[in-house]
Design goal:
87 residues, Methane Monooxygenase Hydroxylase, Chain G, domain 1, 3 helices, mainly alpha
């Protein structure tokens, strides 16, 4: 544990942000898994309903710095391709 006050604060802030990032990333992965499960089951209606929610989750993760913008674009393109294959 650090001795300097500002270093102690940085440790606390880092722990808090790490927990937030972990929760957001976990929620993103869950959303993507839901969409992929709908696609895998061949449920066209559910997949079309989940697609905008999933893309929105990816965009917000990219905006918050959890994903690089190119990685987010790559994920969205792959999901769109899977959705087109079902439809």
């Amino acid at each position: 544990m650090p001795n300097i006050k500002s270093a102690k604060k940085r440790v606390l802030v880092t722990e808090k942000k790490t927990a937030q990032n972990k929760a957001l990333k976990s929620a993103l992965k869950t959303q993507i898994k839901k969409f992929l499960a709908a696609v895998g089951a061949g449920d066209k209606e559910l997949a079309q309903k989940l697609y905008p929610e999933t893309v929105s989750a990816i965009d917000s993760a990219a905006a918050k710095g959890l994903l690089h913008k190119n990685n987010a674009a790559n994920k969205k393109a792959k999901l769109a391709k899977k959705l087109a294959a079902v439809a």
